[in-house]
Please model this.
Amino acid sequence: MAVKLLILLQLCVIVSSIQDDRKVGRLTEVFAWKQLTYDIDGVALTQDRVTSFEQNALLRRKRQSDLVYFKNEYMDERIWSEKYSRMDSRVIPRWNLYRPKPSQPNVGTNVNQSDAFFIQYNNVPMGVERVGDRVFITVPRRRYGIPSTLNYVELNQRERSPALKPYPDIRQARSLTSVYRTRADQCGRLWMVDTGLLEIPANPQQVQPPAIVIFDLNTDTQILRYQFKDEDIPAANTPTGLASITIDMQSDCASAYAYIPDLTTFGLIVYSLKDNDSWRLSHSYFHFNPIAGNLNIAGQNFQWNDGIFSITIKQTGRECNTAYFHPLISFHEFAVSTCVLNNKTAIQASNYWSLYSVSMKILLAYR
Model:
């Protein structure tokens, strides 16, 4: 049974320049939302925007805790078809609203939302990146009704729940399909992976090929869109696993490398900015640990199988840094030299598999 939770996002940063009474221990609460709103070129978007008033009302009522919409019957209606110049018999679903009794299970369903511009409840933030006085917030398109996947708010404004502004603006933001997380580098650039995928349940749509996208934060313009090679994307569901990106800076801004974990089909894509080239690496350490896959969260028991999830770079002061990574479902942390990752032919070496190491074992206490 799918469980949908209302997510409360709180951005907490430790900054001495911000004076505020909203304290959580040693942290200062900067922003908090129960439901996201948008500022689209000065126009406030605070409630659902779909095709009709009736659908607006329907979606708002659907989210009330004691009301459930469901398809409970169908009507066979005869409708005049101009195409065939005759009466056309069609099966039309009838939607009923009812208040369930305590003994009745909640049965959810989907309203036709495919042409909705904004459905507030569907906007769930996934990634946060602070750069100077701006906080970038991503909202992946996992449902309909998401106006912009890459947004920002400014730290110097005092509103507790500010409206998200599409980045750089709504016109340029429309070139991005779905972004999970962003990373800024020391050269004033914002990196991300656009999966190109609308992850609509039961109706996923690959709108455009997955790609690395870079914005220049000084000019707020897109300076690169690198489409992954076919060999980087081995399966149709691979784009669903391209949820993060890590940047490894070399001697200068032109020599950066990007590492993109693929948690779905268990690989790592490496991109060289200097060569404008990419390659895919495989290793058994990129896979999930099946022993760690049984989860219990908030009383819900289920199994999960996400592989390599994120990477962080330890600067060594030498030519090669150390990359630490872990699968989401695992008890271990792993490490590998960035010189291995940055060598597109390293996987062909006979000792390739031994170049990775276990750096830490996470011990969990079960009660």
User: Anything to note?
Assistant: Helices lie at 53-62, 170-173, 338-341. The chain has two domains: 53-98, 124-361. The two ends are 25 Å apart (CA to CA).
